[in-house]
Design goal:
The structure holds 3 protein chains of 3 kinds.
Chain A lengths: L1 H39 L2 E6 L2 E7 L3 H7 L10 H32 L8 H13 L2 H12 L4 H8 L13 H29 L3 H9 L4 H29 L3 H6 L13 H10 L3 H31 L6
Antiparallel strand pairs in A: 1-2
Chain B lengths: L1 H29 L4 H5 L10 H10 L5 H32 L5 H11 L8 H10 L7 H4 L6 H14 L2 H9 L4 H12 L1 H17 L2 H6 L8 H10 L7 H36 L1
Helix pairs in contact in B: 1-14, 3-14, 4-8, 4-11, 9-10, 11-14, 13-14
Chain C lengths: L1 H24 L4 H9 L4 H4 L8 E7 L2 H10 L6 E7 L6 H9 L7 E5 L4 H4 L7 H4 L3 H4 L4 H6 L10 E2 L6 E5 H8 L4 H7 L3 H13 L12 H5 L17 H15 L12 H5 L11 E4 L1 H12 L20 E4 L10 E5 L6 H12 L2 H11 L6 H8 L14 H5 L15 H16 L5 H15 L7
Parallel strand pairs in C: 1-2, 1-3
Antiparallel strand pairs in C: 3-8, 4-8, 5-6, 5-7
Classes of the chains: A mainly alpha, B mainly alpha, C alpha/beta.
């Protein structure tokens, strides 16, 4: 025993050697850039045509500019509008996604229902998740264009008299983005929830059935409480993904975030500053997002840690 | 009762399947039509211009689709190799050895797992420009060595499958630690590696934000960049056949890979979810 | 069983699709191979024994207009190839990429548009064409405004153009005949000679189920070229000219009354569709510069595209069913100046290309005949305008050059500014929302200023 322990100590350096690449790369390509992003946020630096303006140290001016609106007040800042846009579009996809996924997962795992062709269904509903969001957005743009197939079909079926301008209305544009998020993610969530449900001890269901519980009762009183940890996990990861929403609205609205900026997400706005090489504003905006998202990731960490502590649904 | 429920569930499933497949069906049909036919409205039957559209896309010098496909492959495969090797190595380092900073390293990686790359984008762009690595795949492939999500997956997998005895047996056989990792641990991780390879490949293939900001030389464009430029290329509105064909070409490779490997992918999703 | 069957069928279909594509690929895979060779240093070794080094000129452009014309008339030495670099004009992407590539020395040649050319005419990174070797004799037939626009504050001429771009109103002959009883341009001009008659005619056309113009931005250039002040004043404040607000008001009325398509922006699918509408709502006319005929309207008008074996002939879509008139207000649209990187080692070659594209009268005559361009050479224009055999097949044989020969002298570009592109697209975008009833006038103004100042942080709302 003593011999092995002595050996174990001498091997400790290998632990450091093996994790070194990760931390070196992380420091250079993530940590340093994050620090630089904060640094740039204190300067005024942008392009006027071919000429660079600045950098001039401006203190917290960029933060003030991000956090105040046209009338100088905190609440009129566009930041809130973009945050709200992002949140709404996330919810438009997430709410139906959770509902559909719970339903499907319950059906797939219901032995009495005994659904056939599960492999096929799972394959198809997960398929949109692997599709390039850029290509999917371009496709949906063409489908919902005034001269696209959706309008052509509606017109031919006399549902509408003239083409619907889906992307010109706030509801239409946000709705399509929500729909795309739904299509892309409900398959993924279904599979996650199924795994959680299959981890539940079948004896619980049998006992409930013997007691005469209806499928609805079983779902709400047994399934839901037991898959709660994974539901929380799904929600938080989805929210973090949602806050990063970029590809879909960017390409669907051709970077405009229209109509009237109602589909402009936080990251799309950050991209505007990065694209026009306004480093001060991009830095301040990133720094503020960083603080917000760090808070969220702490939340995730807590959840994951709790999950692990309680054994997790899969174990 | 059970029959009604079964009917309801099948009906819902079929509706959702149609919802998922309809856009791709339209894509497939319209990729076979000429511009004027597309404008005349949608039809459920294919047209005759598939080869024409394909040739027009391939020969369109502004849409270097073959080049972009090759670039996407290089980027994705390079990233996959880096992600897999170093994530597994890091996980192995933390899983198999006892050292003072072990706990700290683990918690630290978990903490940074959820931070989006976009927030370091500005500093990252400046760094890449300082290193003179704009329009190169290096700033995408090298940083892939630090991938917290894959690391987490790997270490969870090791916890359930990789016993310390195997490592010690290898030591007794005279294998050094590095050889042990390469020759014994990596092969044992094959199932987890396969799952993560697929996810990383798809994720990289589809990634858009950073590539769009750093790969602006047309020779370095990847497919998502090409698609985004297609959306902004006003004059291409004059040939919707080409537009649909290009969208189709950009998603085709992953769809083929997916359909062949879907069993493992679907299994991998639940594995990752439950472990996480 | 079943699920396997389905999965396999799906996979099979996908593979079939892929295989078809590979088969088709066999016909044409030589193009990308050439592409690869361009950047490859080894290529020099494989090159035929010319004694010269292989030269690759990097030439940036935002659409194929310049490429088509270049390939039509320019003859290059055997050892010279052009590496075309394309970026979309939308959302200022092209402009941004020029700003990145030029200082990095990644370009030899590029084209710039009037909306942002001033950013480049004031930069030493762009060569003075006189330094390149173009003489005053070379420039003597060019229209003065094309020289003024490309001249920097230091007096250096930093770009030359093969085209001038006075604007036209191009209308459908068959619709004119049905509604006004004639398709004769001289008569039709009377129906569109000023904005009041234009609007009255729009009402007549509306009764017949025809839109006067396709969308909300069609008349934009006719207004924006007749302003009295530039967009940006000396204090970097953005000034909205009263004439631009007339555009807003008139367009609002047009959309409200159905004279123009609601929500139809330039270059959109529905905008294109109006040129060859089939069963959908027909459009009477479009405002275009001559380049718009060959580059935009021709392709839009055809039922069978040229790439698919179609011919430019009457009967293929609406080709030939068009005619041009000066319209209610003189205007210009676009304009493409060829500019060169001052650090390029291939100055003589660049000068030679510029001469072939913009000075050589035979070449310019060819451009006029093949593309209908209004070329930037007063001698050739006069020649073409007086040539009884010259006519545009697209315009049913009409000689539109003759129509514009006088108008070009009146083009006034003194109000163009360096940042007009971002301003123009923001202005059209913000008011586009207003025309659709999505925003109020105040919100439209807010959005306009917000978009412009996000992209150009040094500009300010007054």
């Amino acid at each position: 025993m003593a011999k092995i322990k002595a050996k174990g100590v001498s091997y400790a350096k290998w632990g450091y050697i093996f994790i070194a690449p990760f931390f070196i790369v992380f420091s250079i390509f993530t940590l340093y850039p994050v620090l630089m992003t904060f640094y740039y946020s204190f300067f005024e630096r942008f392009m006027i045509g071919l000429n660079q303006h600045g950098p001039y140290y401006v203190g917290l001016d960029n933060y003030v500019a991000v956090l105040t609106g046209a009338d100088g007040s905190f609440f009129s800042s566009n930041l809130w509008q973009y945050f709200l846009n992002t949140l709404i579009m996330w919810l438009l996809g997430f709410v139906p996604q959770i509902a559909a996924s719970l339903l499907l997962a319950a059906w797939f795992t219901d032995l009495r229902l005994n659904l056939k062709m599960q492999g096929f269904f799972k394959t198809v509903i997960y398929l949109p998740n692997i599709i390039m969001a850029a290509a999917f957005s371009m496709l949906m743009f063409q489908l919902f264009d005034t001269i696209g197939p959706v309008n052509a079909t509606l017109l031919r079926m006399d549902v509408v008299e003239e083409p619907v301008r889906f992307l010109s209305s706030t509801m239409g544009a946000r709705g399509i983005i929500g729909l795309m998020n739904f299509i892309m993610w409900f398959g993924n969530t279904t599979i996650l929830l199924m795994a959680a449900m299959m981890g539940i001890d079948p004896a619980l269901f049998e006992a409930a059935e013997i007691d005469g519980a209806s499928p609805r009762d079983i779902f709400w009183k047994i399934t839901m409480p037991l898959i709660n940890p994974i539901l929380v996990y799904v929600m938080i990861t989805s929210m973090i993904g949602g806050l990063q929403m970029f590809d879909i609205p960017q390409i669907l609205t051709n970077t405009s975030g229209g109509p009237n900026n109602t589909t402009m997400t936080l990251i799309m706005h950050l991209n505007q500053h990065l694209f026009s090489r306004n480093f001060g504003m991009a830095g301040a905006f990133s720094a503020l997002l960083f603080i917000g998202m760090s808070a969220l990731s702490l939340l995730v960490f807590k959840t994951v840690a709790n999950n692990a502590a309680s054994g997790g649904p899969g174990h | 009762m059970i029959k009604l429920r079964r009917f309801l569930s099948y009906a819902t499933l079929i509706f959702l399947v149609l919802l998922c497949l309809f856009p791709f069906f339209v894509l497939l049909m319209n990729a076979t039509r000429a511009h004027a036919e597309v404008l005349r409205g949608f039809s459920f039957f294919p047209g005759a211009s598939m080869v024409n559209n394909f040739r027009n896309v391939i020969e369109n010098p502004n849409m270097p689709v073959i080049r972009a496909t090759i670039n996407s492959f290089i980027l994705a495969i390079g990233t996959v190799l880096m992600v897999l090797y170093f994530s597994t190595l890091t996980a192995f380092g933390i899983h198999a050895y006892n050292f003072k900073l072990k706990k700290f390293a683990f918690v630290f990686i978990l903490l940074i797992m959820m931070l989006p790359v976009q927030l370091s984008a500005l500093g990252f762009i400046r760094l890449v420009e300082t290193m003179n690595l704009r329009n190169s795949f290096i700033p995408f492939i090298i940083p892939a060595a630090a991938s917290p999500v894959t690391f987490f997956f790997m270490i969870q997998y090791m916890k359930s499958t990789l016993s310390v005895e195997i490592i010690e047996a290898a030591r007794i056989d005279g294998s050094n630690e590095f050889m042990t990792f390469n020759r014994i641990v990596l092969p044992l991780m094959k199932p987890a590696l396969a799952v993560q390879a697929i996810f990383t490949f798809v994720g990289t293939w589809n990634s858009f934000f950073m590539p769009a900001l750093l790969l602006d030389d047309p020779d370095m464009h990847t497919l998502p960049i090409l698609i985004s430029r297609l959306r902004g290329a006003d004059f291409l509105n004059f040939d919707l056949g080409q537009v649909y064909m290009l969208i189709g070409l950009s998603i085709l490779p992953v769809v083929v890979v997916y359909l062949i490997l879907s069993k493992y992918i679907v299994a991998g999703v639940s594995l990752g979810g439950v472990k996480g | 069983m079943n699920s396997k069957f389905w999965k396999r069928s799906l996979a099979f279909m996908a593979i079939l699709f892929a295989a078809l594509i590979l088969v088709a690929c066999g016909d044409s895979d030589d193009t990308p191979a050439d592409d690869n060779g361009d950047d490859n240093g080894d290529e020099v070794i494989d090159a035929p024994e010319t004694g010269d080094d292989e030269i690759v000129l990097n030439f940036a452009h935002w659409n194929d207009q310049v490429v088509q014309r270049f390939e039509e008339v320019v003859v290059l030495p055997d050892n010279v190839t052009i590496n075309w670099i394309w970026a979309p004009n939308d959302d200022n992407v092209y402009q941004q990429e020029l700003i990145r590539m030029l200082p990095a020395g990644e370009l030899d040649l590029f084209v710039a548009e009037v909306d942002y050319i001033a950013q480049f005419t004031e930069s030493d990174l762009v060569a003075d064409v006189r330094d390149l070797g173009l003489t005053d004799a070379d420039l003597s037939y060019m229209f003065q405004y094309t020289l003024d626009v490309a001249t920097g504050p230091d007096g250096a001429l930093r770009g030359v153009s093969w085209e001038a771009n006075p604007g036209l109103f191009i209308y459908r002959r068959s619709i004119a005949y049905d509604v006004f009883g004639t398709d004769d341009p001289d008569v039709i001009q009377g129906y569109v000679q000023d904005w009041a008659t234009f609007e009255a005619s729009a009402a007549v056309l509306y009764e017949q189920g025809v839109r006067m113009v396709a969308g909300y931005a069609d008349t934009y250039r006719t207004f924006s070229n007749n302003v009295t002040e530039p967009w940006v004043n000396e204090d970097n404040e953005i000034i909205i000219d009263p004439h631009m607000m007339s555009w807003v008001d008139q367009t609002y009325r047009f959309i409200d009354q159905g004279f123009a398509g609601v929500g139809v922006g330039l270059w959109s699918g529905e905008w294109s569709q109006g040129v060859n509408p089939g069963d959908t709502t027909p459009v009477f006319g479009y405002f275009h510069a001559p380049w718009g005929i060959s580059f935009v309207m021709r392709d839009q008008s055809l039922d069978v595209q040229l790439a698919d074996g179609g011919e430019e002939e009457v009967g293929n879509g609406t080709f030939g069913d068009w005619a041009a008139v000066p319209g209610p207000e003189g205007f210009f649209w676009g304009g493409t100046w060829i500019m060169a990187y001052s650090g390029s080692p291939h100055q003589e070659l660049i000068a030679d290309i510029m001469r072939q594209m913009t000075v050589d009268q035979d070449n310019l005559r060819t451009l006029s005949e093949n593309f209908g361009d209004f070329v930037n050479n007063s001698a050739v224009v006069e020649d073409v305008a007086n040539d009884p055999d010259f006519g545009s097949a697209f315009l049913g044989g009409q000689n539109h050059i003759a129509l514009l020969a006088d108008a070009v002298e009146t083009i006034d570009m003194s109000h163009v500014g360096a940042f007009d592109q971002a301003i123009t697209s923001a202005f059209q975008g913000a008011w586009g929302d207003y025309f659709e009833g999505i925003v109020t006038r105040e919100e439209a103004l807010d959005n306009f200023f917000e978009t412009v100042t996000t992209f150009h942080p040094h500009l300010r709302r007054p």
